[in-house]
Each structure stands twice: as structure tokens, then as C-alpha cells.
Amino acid sequence: MSSLHLSIDDTLALVSTTDPAWNDDGTRVGYLRFADGETQFATQRVGPVEGTDVSLDAGTFTPDTETTLDGVAGFEWRPGHPEEALVVADGDLYRVDTSAGTTRPLARAHEATSSPAWHPDGDRIAYLRDRTLWVHGVDGTVTALSTDDPLRPADLFGPTPLEWDPSGRYVGVVVEPDDVEALGVAVYDTESPDEPVVWETTPTTADDCLRADFQWVGAGHLVYAEDSRDGTERVYRSVRVGEDEGLGVAVASESVDGLLLPHRPVGHESGRLAVVSARTGWRHVYAIDVEARRDAVENGDDRPGFTGTGVVQVTEGEFEARGDADDRPAWSPDGERLAYVTNEADPGERHLEVATLGEGAVTDRTAFSDVDGNAIYPTWSPTSERVACLRSGRFSPTDVHVAAVDTGAMRRVSASYPEPSRLDGLPDPEPVSFEASDGATVYGYLYLPPDAEAGDDVPSVVLCHGGPISQMRRGFHHGQTYGYFHLFDQWFVSEGYAVLELNFRSGVGYGDEFEQAIHRNIGIVEIDDCEAAATYLRERPETSDRVGMWGRSYGGYLANALATMSDEYDCAVNVAGIWDWRTWEEWAIDLGPTHWGASEPTWFHNRFGGRPDSDDPVVQERYRVGSPNSFVEDLDTPLLALHGSTDKNVTVGELEVLIEECVEAGVDFDAVYYPNEEHMFQRPATWRDALGRVVEFFDDHLKE
């Protein structure tokens, strides 16, 4: 019936592009390129941006340069050397000369190296190895900045924050003590290797907080975030190393009756700080003059809020000024402008915007609102004239784009799909909304086979994203995981399915009330939204009464929940989802904040109001109601569960418990685990097998 023709191999031909960054003279953009199960460091020369061209045919699929290393995890351009970058690969450090095409090792060891950061002069690099801070010179000199105190750099699930101050003397790093499960910030003086820690703030158990996100705002001057362990309060504190004692000066603060997302502030050496806050009910950008703020509040309130002297609200209105939960604004090198993205024009899109700041106010704005699609992660060129970002379109995957701030022009630099014409027939994303049973509005994007008509009885599939602090977009998604899932959905469309990419309550893009809706309501409001989606699809004139769903991570949890708690779906596919919040939390809490970072308490306790072993019957009931295994005996919706054995986000133990309890209950299910696969499957062979099973499962249960 459909005129759209895609295969599994067509979906796996997509290249994921991430982490764009300018070299020292602004002639190249480097980025990470994931293809065929491997990640490589690639670069592309960038000339003048004289006109806007973001078409599928624009950009270069084959980069100017690309490494051939194993296990590339990141890169850092070398200051003062525009053709050289440091690349992290399999835990070792390599110097890559992009002009000569050479690669040579800088630091190799049995233990993995992480969080490399070049000195401002480009003559040495700081990094972490075996929970020790090292400084490695390009001349071969190596210094370990160790201390006898029970305080060491943290070993986090993601990169441990590590930054040089603008003077190049101090290194800030997130640390953890050996005697208490907490995170703090320490400053190391590289000129005093025998007694390197010159300032630190590490909370005790009694402090009931974590201090883990920081940025330098001048020579020897940093700002860090102090988060309460229950995830409800945050204070930003300013510290001048060598001058301030104790915790420093509070310059901003916020609190919520719900959950504060972890957010790393963005500093500039001029003394300015940018943060994102939802204090008005929508997430907006704020610029803080730290010195002015210190003068205004130094002898005042330790909870100074976000109003008054030294604070400028850069964006305002019923829209969001962030691309995703981890998106941040970016200061221009001269410190006069901020680049960020907003969904002011369309809830499911993000447009690049640049604000110029004068004395205490925004004096000018440049909005790239005539370029539809989703921009995210802006980064400035060294001359403050251009901004590189990731951008995806309604019909085009995510690529590096460069915008000329003064002219408003933008063009695609990279190309992430080898045969753009294969994507010409993709259906137009149709924005849809409908009401849940409690009257709340739910949103999504519907994709119908191109020639679908009323009365065709097309079977339907709902995709539920992970997070859950995420959002499916109007077209391709910028993230590696959901960029691929979006193209997988288009393959389902080519197989004759209607696909609804659902934005259930708890996601971003629709305001703080929408995002906070699952607070103490896990397994209730988002299940209601999913059920409303199934009803909506059954009532469409083009679709049949057969509806399935699939999702990964939190979406996989929803698949488990809908299979056990609801009869609204004809089948469900769980990819790496939680089966029992209690067993998962026990596993996750054992790993501690040094695995998860500052978000650990917010995710693992705040959502339910307490620990899984709480004596509070209200908390116990929330865990019971939210956990699919509580209703295993009611599982009569066909369920397919897929999981990777080395998943670091949702342990494969969740699948093992699912299998054990389903067998004991005597209910039918299908389950497959993939050895040595992560939370997002990496190998094309795994996806060929998994997608083959998924479409066969849908065909069996959704097609007549």
C-alpha cells in the first residue's frame, strides 16, 4: 500500500553525529561520528557562511579527516595548535594531527584515562586516572597531584567535571571522600604538587546535600551548585580561591515542590554565569553578573533567589529555552552574547537564538526561526562570529550546522546519511494532541503511510521515549538513540504501520507542570497518557483497532507496565526497561552517587518520596503501584522483552527477574538478551536481529 520503501539496512545506514567543537582558529569543526558500531573523531573545514542551505543534499558525508582508533569516547582541540586534537580511545590519550593525518599516543596505562582538559597555553593536559589527578606535558613530563587526605577525584558514570581556571594555575574537579557517600568540589594548585588541594567543599552526611557541578568565572574564581539530597533545592555559590573561606557566597537559589534537574552552570572569565531555571514554570536562561551579585547579597540572605541586582532573565514566556535536559547556553568568547535554543515557535522544534547583553539587560536578539527543525548544543567559534550546533530536520537526520550570527544564515556542514534520496519519501510529521482521562493534554507526532486513506484499517504502533525527561520531536531527533529509533519508526511506516511518537507527561517541552506530573505518581499519569494514545489511534479514520507499543529504558518500563496493568494494547515491546522499581533502586543505590552523579538522590528517592525499604506505607504503596511485577499475574497482553547483558543504566537483572516471575506466574512472554550489549545496542548485527523480532512480533499480533 505504501509508496515508502525502507529496509532494516536502510535504517542502520544512519550515522550519528555528536559533540561539535571548533578548533583554535575557527577553520575546522571536530565532531564524533558513530557508524557500524564504532565511534570515530572526524573534522570538517568550514568556510564563510554566505547563505542558508540546510537541505538533505547539503553537507559532506565523507569528512575531511577521520581517525581509525578503537573505542573513541571524546576529543579536545589543542589551544594554539589549530590542526591538533587530543582523542580519548579505549581509555588512552592520543595526539591527532589533522593536517598530517598522523596519530601518536600521549598517555597509555592499564587503568582508563578520562576527563582530559588542555591547559590554556596548550603545553600540558590534566586528566584523571585511577582516581588521581595527573598533569602531562607535551614535552613528556608527568606529575601526579596526590594527597594524603581521604579525598579523591570522583569516578562517575559520565565524565567527571574537570576544568582549568583561566589563569592556568588551578584545576577544579569533582571529588568524593573515602569515608562518606557524597560529592564535592576541590581546587588543585598545580604550582604546589606536594600539597595540591588549596580549597575544597565536601558535604558530610549531616549536610544532606551534594556539590558536584561547577564552572570558573575568572582567575581563581569559581561558582558551584549545591543540591539538596531530596532534589528540591539548589544554591549557586561563588568562591574566590585564597580569599573566601567556607562555602563561599550564595549568588542564586531555587526550590521546587517536585524535582530539580541536575544543571551545570556555564561560566565566562569576565565574571558572568549563565544558568537554566524553571522558576517561572518554564525553563529559561538567566545571566548572572557574579561580582555584582556578591556585592548585593554577601551580607544578606543565603537563599537569594533569581531576582534583583546582577541577574538578567534572558528569555521569558510560555516556552522553553533548552534543547533537552542536558542542554546548556553558550557564552561567546568575548562574553557579550549568549547562544541558546528555544521552542517558542513550535513545541516540538528548537530554533537557535543569540542574545546580546548590555548593562543589566538584553539589548539585541538574533533568532534563526526561519530554519525549521531542531537545533541543540550551540558552541561559538573563536572569533564570536559563528555558532556551530547540531540540527535535525523534519525529514533530515542530525548533522553539524554552522550559523553566521550577524547575517542569520545557516548551512549544513556534515551529512549523516549516505543516500539522502532514500529519505525523500518520509511522511510529514503530523502534530496531534488529545486528552487523557483526567483532562490533561497529551502530545505526539503521527506518521501515516503516505497513501493511507480513511477506511484502510492501518495497524498502529506507539513509541514511548526514555528518560523520562526527554521529548520526541517534529521529525528526526538529535540524540543518537532516538535518531535511530525515529528512523526505525519510519521503517515500520514503510511496512504498513501508522506510528505515533508519544510525548507523555514527564517529558520536556511543555512546561514544568507537564514535566513534574509523575512526581509521586509513577505508573499512574503516564499510563493514563499511553492508554489515551491507544484510544486516539483506534478512533482515527485511517487506522484499525489493533494497537501495539514499544519503548526503550523508561519507554521499556512503560511497555512492561501496559502489559501488566492495562488492556488497551494488543502487544508491547520492552527494550531495556525496569520490571520492579524496588530491585532496580537497590541495585542503583548500591552504585551510589559516584556512579550516577548529583542526580542520584533525585531519581532514586524523590520520585517515590522515600527509599524502597521505607517503613512508610504510603511510600511502599507508590513502589507497588508503579512496579509492573506487582501485577504479573494479570499479564495477558503479549510482551516481548529485549535487553543487553552489559547495560549500565538498567541492569540485565531486571530481565532475569521478569523471566523468573513470569514463569512462576505461568503467563506467556518472549524474552531475548544480547551478550556484551549496552543500554542502547551498539552492533548492527544486534539491531538486525532485534528489529526482525520486533516487526515479526507486531505482524503476528497487529495484522490480520
From TrEMBL:
It comes from the Archaea. Residues 490-703 form the Peptidase S9 prolyl oligopeptidase catalytic domain. GO terms for biological process: proteolysis. One of its GO terms (molecular function) is serine-type endopeptidase activity. Residues 91-149, 186-355 form the Dipeptidylpeptidase IV N-terminal domain. Keywords: Acetylation, Hydrolase, Protease. This enzyme catalyzes the hydrolysis of the N-terminal peptide bond of an N-acetylated peptide to generate an N-acetylated amino acid and a peptide with a free N-terminus. It preferentially cleaves off Ac-Ala, Ac-Met and Ac-Ser. Also, involved in the degradation of oxidized and glycated proteins. PANTHER family: DIPEPTIDYL PEPTIDASE 9, PROTEASE FAMILY S9B,C DIPEPTIDYL-PEPTIDASE IV-RELATED. This is Acyl-peptide hydrolase. It comes from Halomarina oriensis.
